[in-house]
C-alpha cells in the first residue's frame, strides 16, 4: 500500500472514531429533554457523557489536523468551500461543550432550561450537518481549477443543500439518535433505561428506512463498486442485529452493533470515494485525489511514524476511561439534584 | 473592509480570546496538581478543600479554552485556504501531532480527574491531573513550533513549481531556536497568569477572613509562582529578543521605533512618532541598552526600520515591509510592563507578609489583589499582538505575505457574518464565564466530599 493510500485509510479511521464516539453523545444530547423527566434524571443522562465527551470530540480535531498534514489541498478546499455548514458546526460544538460544564451550576429553571435547549439544538445541528457534508463530498461538488492551480470549491452555499445530501443528513441524524439511545439504555438504570430502549426502537426503525433509501440512492447514482456493496451489506445486517438486540433489551449488544453500523457507514462512504478525496462534479481532471491533494512523501513518512507509534496508546487509555466509568448511573445517585453548587453562599 | 481585513480581524479576535483561557488553564492545571499533591502527602483537609475550590475555577476556564480551540484548528482552512495549501506540508504536521499526542491526553485524563474522585485510587487520581497538565505542555510545544515556522521558516524547501513550501527536516522545524525560546517564554507566562489568579483570589479570601486556613498556603504558592516564573520570563525574553534580532530584525526595530541603524542604540522608554510611522518626533531612551539587549554588547550595531526597508526591497521586490510601528512599539512595552507590574506587586505582597503572613487591611490592598489576576493576562495578550502584528506584512516571514494567504473563494460577506457571530458568541460566553468565576469565588470553599470508592447506589461525588 502506498503511503497516500495508508493516510486515506488513517483519516477514514479517525472519522470512524469520531462518529462512533461523538455520534452517541450527539444522540444523548438530542434525546435529553425527551428521555429525562426531572432534574435527577436529566443530570444522570448528562453524567453518562461527563467523563467522555471531550475525549470523543478530540477525534474530530485530530481528523482535521491529520487532513491538514497529509492532504492539505483537501483540508483547504473542504473547509473554505463548506464554509457556512462548518461554521454552524463549530458554533454548535462551542455552545455544547460550555453547556455541559455550566448547566448545573445553578438550580434555577430559567438557567438550566436554556442550557438544555442549547444542548439539544447544538447536538442536533452537527449530527445533521456532518451527514450533509459527507454526502456532498461523496456525491461530488463543483470544483474549479484556479489560476494558481488549486482546485477551489465553486458551488456556493445552497448547492450543498441538495436532496441527496439532505437525505444523508437526516440519516446520520437518526442514526446518531438511535446510537445515543442504545448508549443511554446501556449506561443508566430505571425509567431512563426503559424510555431510551423504547426511543431506540422507534428511532432505529426510522433510521433503517432512511438508510435503505440513502444507500439505494448511493449505489444507484454514486458508486456501486463491489466494496461499497460489501460495506452497505455489513452496515445493514449489523443494524438489524442492533434493532433485534435492543428489542430483547440486550443493551450492550445493541450498542456494539450500532457502533459497527456507524463505522461501516463511514467506511462505505470512504470506499465510494477512493482514490478521490473530493470528486468534482465538473469532471475527473478537477477532482482532488489522494495524490494531487497530498503532502510530500517525507511528510507522510514522518506522520506515519508518529501515528503508528501514538495511536495504540490513545486507544488504550481512552478504552481505560470507558472501563473506569463502566457502571450504570441511577438518578438516585445524584445528590441534591435540584440545587446548583452556586445557589447559596457559604457563611 | 474586504475579505482580507475581515479575516485578519477574525483571526485576531478569536486568537486573542482563546489565549485568555490558554495560559490560565496551563498554569492552573499544574497549581491544582500541586495542591492535590500536598493533600496526598499530608492528608490535611485544607489542601483538599483548596484543590476542589481552585479545581472548580480551573474547569470553568478550561471549558471555554477547549471549545474556542476547535475554531483555531479549522480557521486556517476556512479563512486562510491559500496559506493552508502553501504551508500544509509543514504546518499540518505539528498540528496533527498536537492532536494525537496532547489533545487526547488532556481531554481523556481531565475527564478521569473530574469524574474519577470516587472511581480511582487516591494515587491514580492524583496521577490523572499531572498527566493532563503534561498534555497541556506538549500541546503548547507543538503549536509554538508551528507558529515559529511562520516567524522564521526553517527545515523546508520550495516545491519544483514554487507553489508551496515542503518539509525537509521535521527535526529542524521542531527544534529551531524560535520554537524553543517561545516555549520557555510562553510557559512561564502561563504560570505567571495562573499564579496571579490564585494569589489574587486567595488574598481576597484572607482580607475577607473567609477560609483563611485554605487561602493562606495558596496565596504563598501563588506569589512564589509569580516571582519564579518572572525570572524565567526575563531570561527567556532576553534570549528571545536576541534570536529575534538575528531572524526578524524588522520586528525588533519596530518594537523600538528605531528608524536608523546605529551603534550604542538606546532602549526607548517613550516615543511619539509621526502617524505614518516613518520617523520619531520625541524619544526618551536608556543609552546603549537596546544594543545590549539585541547583541549582548553595549556597542553593538542595531539595524533600523528605514535601512531594513531598503534591504527588503532589494531582496523581495517593491513593497512596504514595515509593520504597524506604533502598535509594535506599544504592545511590546505593555507586554513587559504588565508582566513586571504583576511581579512587583507579588514582591511587595511577600514583603508585607514577611512576619506571620497576614495581609494589612487597606484600600490599596483590596484594589491590588483585584487587579493582580488581570495584569499578566494583559501582558500575554499584548505579547501575542506584538509577535503576530510586527511580523506583517508576512504570514510566513520572507515566503508568503498575509494578503496572499486568504481564502480566494470566501466572500467578504461570509467572513463578516462569521466574524460578527463569533464575536457576539464569545462576548456572551465571556460575560457568563466571568459571572460564574465571581460567583464561585463568593460562594467560597464549602465542604467538599472526599472520594471514597463509592459502592453501587451511593451518591456520586461528581455529576454534571
What is the secondary structure topology, with strand pairs?
The complex is a heterodimer of chains A (347) and B (464).
Chain A: H1 3-35, H2 39-49, H3 53-70, H4 72-81, H5 83-102, H6 109-139, E1 143-145, E2 151-153, H7 163-187, H8 191-222, H9 226-247, H10 251-273, E3 276-278, E4 288-289, H11 297-324
Antiparallel strand pairs in A: 1-2, 3-4
Chain B: H1 3-42, H2 45-79, H3 81-115, H4 122-151, E1 156-158, E2 165-167, H5 170-175, H6 177-207, H7 212-247, H8 249-256, E3 262-263, E4 267-273, E5 280-286, H9 289-295, E6 301-302, H10 305-316, H11 325-352, H12 363-371, H13 374-389, E7 394-396, E8 400-401, H14 402-405, H15 412-443
Antiparallel strand pairs in B: 1-2, 3-6, 4-5, 7-8
Helix pairs in contact in B: 1-2, 1-4, 1-6, 1-13, 1-15, 2-3, 2-7, 2-15, 3-4, 4-6, 6-7, 6-12, 6-13, 7-8, 7-11, 8-11, 11-13
Briefly say what this structure is.
Chain A is mainly alpha-helical. Chain A has helices spanning 3-35, 39-49, 53-70, 72-81, 83-102, 109-139, 163-187, 191-222, 226-247, 251-273, 297-324; strands spanning 143-145, 151-153, 276-278, 288-289.
How would you describe this structure to a colleague?
The complex is a heterodimer of chains A (347) and B (464). Chain A is mainly α and 347 residues long. Chain A is built from 11 helices and 4 strands, in the order ααααααββααααββα. Chain A has a single domain (8-146, 154-333), classed as Formate dehydrogenase/DMSO reductase fold (Up-down Bundle). Chain A has helices at 3-35, 39-49, 53-70, 72-81, 83-102, 109-139, 163-187, 191-222, 226-247, 251-273, 297-324, and strands at residues 143-145, 151-153, 276-278, 288-289. The termini of chain A are far apart. The model of chain A has no long low-confidence stretch (mean pLDDT 94). Chain B has 464 residues and is mainly α. Chain B folds into 2 domains: 3-248 and 326-443; 255-322, no CATH class. Chain B has 15 helices and 8 strands. In chain B, helix 1 runs antiparallel to helix 2, helix 6 (177-207) packs antiparallel against helix 7 and helix 7 crosses helix 8 (249-256). The two termini of chain B are 44 Å apart. The relative contact order of chain B is 0.14. At the A-B interface, helix 2, helix 3, helix 4, helix 5 and helix 11 of A face helix 2, helix 3 and helix 15 of B.
Amino acid at each position: 500500500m502506498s503511503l497516500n493510500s495508508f493516510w486515506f485509510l488513517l483519516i477514514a479511521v479517525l472519522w470512524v472514531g469520531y462518529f462512533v464516539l461523538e455520534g452517541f453523545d450527539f444522540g444523548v444530547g438530542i434525546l435529553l429533554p425527551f428521555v429525562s423527566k426531572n432534574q435527577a434524571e436529566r443530570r444522570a443522562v448528562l453524567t453518562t457523557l461527563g467523563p467522555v465527551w471531550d475525549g470523543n470530540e478530540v477525534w474530530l480535531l485530530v481528523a482535521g489536523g491529520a487532513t491538514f498534514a497529509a492532504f492539505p489541498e483537501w483540508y483547504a478546499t473542504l473547509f473554505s468551500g463548506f464554509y457556512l455548514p462548518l461554521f454552524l458546526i463549530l458554533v454548535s460544538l462551542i455552545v455544547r461543550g460550555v453547556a455541559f460544564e455550566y448547566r448545573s451550576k445553578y438550580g434555577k429553571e430559567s438557567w438550566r432550561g436554556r442550557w438544555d435547549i442549547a444542548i439539544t439544538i447544538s447536538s442536533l445541528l452537527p449530527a445533521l450537518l456532518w451527514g450533509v457534508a459527507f454526502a456532498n463530498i461523496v456525491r461530488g461538488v463543483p470544483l474549479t481549477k484556479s489560476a494558481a492551480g488549486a482546485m477551489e470549491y465553486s458551488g456556493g452555499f445552497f448547492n450543498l443543500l441538495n436532496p441527496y445530501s439532505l437525505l444523508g443528513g437526516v440519516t446520520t441524524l437518526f442514526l446518531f439518535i438511535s446510537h445515543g439511545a442504545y448508549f443511554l439504555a446501556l449506561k443508566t438504570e430505571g425509567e431512563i433505561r426503559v424510555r431510551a430502549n423504547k426511543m431506540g426502537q422507534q428511532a432505529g426503525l426510522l433510521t433503517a428506512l432512511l438508510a435503505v433509501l440513502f444507500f439505494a440512492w448511493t449505489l444507484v447514482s454514486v458508486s456501486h463498486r463491489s466494496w461499497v456493496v460489501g460495506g452497505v451489506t455489513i452496515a445493514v445486517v449489523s443494524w438489524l442485529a442492533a434493532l433485534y438486540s435492543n428489542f430483547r433489551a440486550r443493551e450492550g449488544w445493541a450498542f456494539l452493533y450500532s457502533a459497527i453500523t456507524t463505522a461501516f457507514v463511514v467506511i462505505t462512504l470512504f470506499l465510494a470515494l477512493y482514490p478521490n478525496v473530493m470528486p468534482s462534479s465538473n469532471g475527473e481532471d478537477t477532482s482532488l485525489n489522494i495524490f494531487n491533494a497530498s503532502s510530500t512523501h517525507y511528510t507522510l513518512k514522518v506522520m506515519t511514524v508518529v501515528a503508528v507509534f501514538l495511536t495504540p496508546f490513545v486507544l488504550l487509555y481512552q478504552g481505560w476511561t470507558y472501563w473506569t466509568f463502566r457502571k450504570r448511573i441511577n438518578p438516585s445517585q445524584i445528590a441534591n439534584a435540584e440545587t446548583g453548587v452556586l445557589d447559596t453562599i457559604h457563611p | 473592509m474586504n475579505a482580507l481585513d475581515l479575516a485578519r480581524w477574525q483571526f485576531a479576535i478569536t486568537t486573542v480570546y482563546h489565549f485568555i483561557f490558554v495560559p490560565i488553564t496551563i498554569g492552573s492545571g499544574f497549581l491544582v496538581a500541586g495542591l492535590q499533591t500536598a493533600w496526598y502527602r499530608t492528608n490535611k483537609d485544607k489542601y483538599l478543600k483548596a484543590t476542589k475550590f481552585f479545581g472548580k475555577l480551573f474547569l470553568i476556564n478550561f471549558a471555554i479554552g477547549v471549545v474556542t480551540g476547535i475554531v483555531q484548528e479549522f480557521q486556517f482552512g476556512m479563512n486562510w485556504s491559500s496559506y493552508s495549501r502553501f504551508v500544509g506540508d509543514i504546518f499540518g504536521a505539528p498540528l496533527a501531532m498536537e492532536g494525537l499526542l496532547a489533545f487526547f491526553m488532556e481531554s481523556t485524563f481531565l475527564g478521569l480527574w473530574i469524574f474519577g474522585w470516587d472511581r480511582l485510587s487516591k494515587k491514580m487520581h492524583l496521577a490523572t491531573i499531572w498527566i493532563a497538565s503534561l498534555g497541556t505542555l506538549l500541546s503548547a510545544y507543538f503549536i509554538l513550533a508551528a507558529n515559529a515556522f511562520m516567524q522564521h521558516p526553517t527545515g523546508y524547501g520550495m516545491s519544483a513549481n514554487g507553489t508551496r513550501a515542503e518539509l525537509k527536516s521535521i527535526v529542524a522545524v521542531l527544534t529551531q531556536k524560535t520554537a524553543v525560546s517561545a516555549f520557555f517564554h510562553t510557559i512561564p507566562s502561563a504560570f505567571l497568569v495562573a499564579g496571579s489568579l490564585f494569589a489574587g483570589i486567595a488574598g481576597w479570601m484572607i482580607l475577607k477572613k473567609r477560609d483563611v486556613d485554605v487561602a493562606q498556603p495558596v496565596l504563598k504558592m501563588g506569589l512564589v509562582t509569580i516571582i519564579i516564573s518572572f525570572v524565567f520570563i526575563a531570561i527567556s525574553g532576553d534570549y528571545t529578543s536576541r534570536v529575534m534580532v538575528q531572524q526578524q530584525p524588522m520586528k525588533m526595530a519596530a518594537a523600538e521605533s528605531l528608524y536608523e541603524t546605529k551603534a550604542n542604540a538606546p532602549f526607548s522608554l517613550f516615543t511619539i512618532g509621526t502617524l505614518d510611522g516613518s520617523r520619531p518626533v520625541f524619544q526618551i531612551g536608556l543609552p546603549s541598552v537596546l544594543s545590549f539587549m539585541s547583541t549582548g554588547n553595549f556597542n553593538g550595531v542595531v539595524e533600523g526600520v528605514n535601512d531594513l526597508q531598503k534591504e527588503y526591497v532589494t531582496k523581495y521586490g517593491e513593497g512596504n515591509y514595515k509593520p504597524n510601528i506604533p502598535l509594535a512599539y506599544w504592545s511590546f512595552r505593555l507586554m513587559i510592563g504588565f508582566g513586571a507590574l504583576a511581579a512587583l506587586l507579588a514582591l511587595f505582597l511577600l514583603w508585607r507578609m514577611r512576619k506571620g503572613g497576614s495581609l494589612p487591611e487597606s484600600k490599596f490592598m483590596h484594589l491590588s489583589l483585584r487587579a493582580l489576576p488581570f495584569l499578566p493576562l494583559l501582558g500575554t495578550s499584548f505579547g501575542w499582538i506584538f509577535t503576530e502584528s510586527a511580523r506583517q506584512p508576512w504570514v510566513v516571514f520572507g515566503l508568503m505575505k498575509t494578503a496572499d494567504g486568504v481564502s480566494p473563494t470566501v466572500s467578504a460577506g461570509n467572513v463578516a457574518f462569521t466574524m460578527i457571530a463569533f464575536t457576539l458568541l464569545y462576548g456572551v460566553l465571556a460575560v457568563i464565564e466571568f459571572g460564574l468565576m465571581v460567583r464561585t469565588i463568593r460562594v467560597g470553599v464549602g465542604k467538599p466530599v472526599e472520594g471514597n470508592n463509592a459502592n453501587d447506589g451511593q451518591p456520586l461525588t461528581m455529576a454534571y
